[in-house]
Amino acid sequence: MLLADLHLPPNDGGSGGDPLGTAFRRFCEGPARAAQRVFILGDLFEVWVGDDAGLVEHAEDVAAIRRLVDSGVEVYFQHGNRDFIVGAAFARATGLRLLPDLAVFEIAGQPCLLAHGDLFCTDDAAYQRWRRFSRNRLAQWIYNRLPLSRRRRIAGGLRSDSHKQRKPEAIMDVNETTIRETFLRYAVPRLIHGHTHRPADHHYQIEGRHCERIVLADWRPDRMEWLRADACGLHRETLATP
């Protein structure tokens, strides 16, 4: 199973004001138990200011993933643009495995490249510069040693700037040349990613090969979707209403 872009807010202690978090925990306790592997391709959380705070603020989500792993399901996590600071303490607490920005796995009988997807939005030059800086190990080392209050202000400022910006729709999507170059570089027939919040299946001819790009859906209260892989192929599924 593959999913992305849940953008979970901090847990509310069961007050009922967190429908996405409740749904994710239902997913972990229900449909995900039937999987051999679950891939979370970034932006599981709306914001993550560090493992020290995140493990407390998302204690229920962390516990749900831990129970899923303890049940025998392998869980993998790629960083998104909202939760790129997720670290080793989170991995230890949940038992999941952290993946690099680009990772190849055999899925539904074919080698498949997995990514969050922001790497492919190369028309947004300003974001790509920020991305390179924010993923720098020294920058992350410094950030993680700032007081928690300072980290919250930085994260809040970044989110505010993101909401204020009105970028053209075109640069918010992937760059098709970058996609084609990625297919050539990795020589895989399939790419699965999230990030753009534009779920769709795209088809390409790359040097005589048929290639497929599958964009995962973002989660909303009225649409909580994942991709299930089996011997027959890939299937989009949604969480049933309780």
Detail the topology: elements first, then pairings.
Layout: E1 2-3, H1 19-29, E2 37-41, H2 51-57, H3 59-70, E3 74-78, H4 88-94, E4 97-98, E5 102-107, E6 110-115, H5 125-134, H6 137-144, H7 148-164, H8 176-186, E7 190-193, E8 200-206, E9 209-215, E10 225-230, E11 233-238
Parallel strand pairs: 1-2, 2-3, 3-4, 6-7, 7-9
Antiparallel strand pairs: 5-6, 8-9, 10-11
Helix pairs in contact: 1-3, 2-4
Question: How many beta-strand segments?
Answer: 11
Radius of gyration: 18 Å
- Major sheet details: 5 strands, mixed
CATH topology: Purple Acid Phosphatase, chain A, domain 2
Total domain modules: 1
Oligomer state of the chains in this structure: single chain
The order of strands across the largest sheet is 5-6-7-9-8
Question: Poorly predicted ranges (pLDDT <50, ≥5 residues)?
Answer: none
Shape call: globular
Q: What do the pLDDT scores average to?
A: 94
Q: CATH superfamily assignment?
A: Metallo-dependent phosphatases
Strand portion:
15-25%
User: In terms of structural class, how would the helical and strand content be classed?
Assistant: alpha/beta
